[in-house]
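queue> pop job 88
queue> type: inverse folding (structure -> sequence)
queue> payload:
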């Protein structure tokens, strides 16, 4: 076989492999065990200094399930105004940006590479192992008066964030919820529709 043909085939295969999105199938979340609710409440706190340690897929799965997973066939670990369930969770890891498919527990890769700094304006954001961006689709909130949608989305997001705080306390991880984000940049980066709104962002990672 011609050397040039082999070389070109190799390059094409390499390009194809590196351009294919690398989704992550997370393990099933651990739904029992963990620390007591009193321990988690006693240890809940915001962390703004993070170690370089990565999170395991199991830790990511546990955190996302606590945040917004299903605990019944069609309802979740958090309440939701008028049961609109308007949130999508976007996950920023050192390996890329992902949309969490809450039904299959898969992280669907949207972009490769480390874009953690896009998830907030403060220095610690890019150092935290994971940043979650909470996006509400107001199209799913049509049963709520248009003037109240934003208030309800922020209220719903508070429950999500608090679950992450408690799960992090249980796993001895740090986290902090954040309103200080560049919403325009996130909207562009995540290619959001006009009905989708960035509400808050939350950093999670090992504590220093
Ligand atoms: C709605 C909301 C928005 C917040 N926004 C930010 C933020 O943009 N940046 C930040 O570093 N911390 C943010 N925080 C975290 C607060 O700074 C933190 O909760 C507060 O200092 C109390 O500390 P504690 O959570 O350890 O009790 C926010 C907290 C809430 C509830």
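queue> result:
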């Amino acid at each position: 076989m011609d050397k040039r043909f082999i070389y070109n085939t190799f390059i094409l295969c390499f390009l194809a492999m590196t351009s294919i999105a690398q989704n992550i199938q997370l393990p099933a979340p651990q739904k029992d065990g963990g620390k007591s609710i009193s321990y988690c409440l006693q240890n809940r706190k915001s962390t703004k200094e993070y170690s370089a340690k990565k999170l395991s897929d199991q830790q990511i799965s546990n955190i996302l399930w606590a945040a917004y997973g299903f605990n019944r066939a069609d309802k979740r670990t958090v309440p939701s105004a008028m049961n609109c369930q308007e949130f999508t969770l976007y996950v920023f890891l050192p390996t890329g940006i992902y949309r969490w498919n809450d039904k299959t527990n898969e992280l669907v890769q949207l972009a490769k590479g480390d874009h953690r700094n896009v998830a907030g304006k403060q220095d610690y954001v890019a150092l935290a192992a994971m940043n979650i961006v909470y996006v509400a689709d107001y199209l799913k909130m049509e049963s709520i008066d248009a003037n109240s949608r934003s208030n309800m989305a922020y209220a719903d997001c508070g429950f999500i964030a608090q679950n992450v705080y408690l799960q992090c306390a249980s796993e001895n991880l740090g986290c902090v919820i954040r309103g200080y984000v560049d919403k325009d940049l996130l909207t562009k980066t995540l290619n959001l529709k006009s009905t989708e709104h960035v509400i808050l962002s939350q950093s999670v990672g090992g504590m220093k």
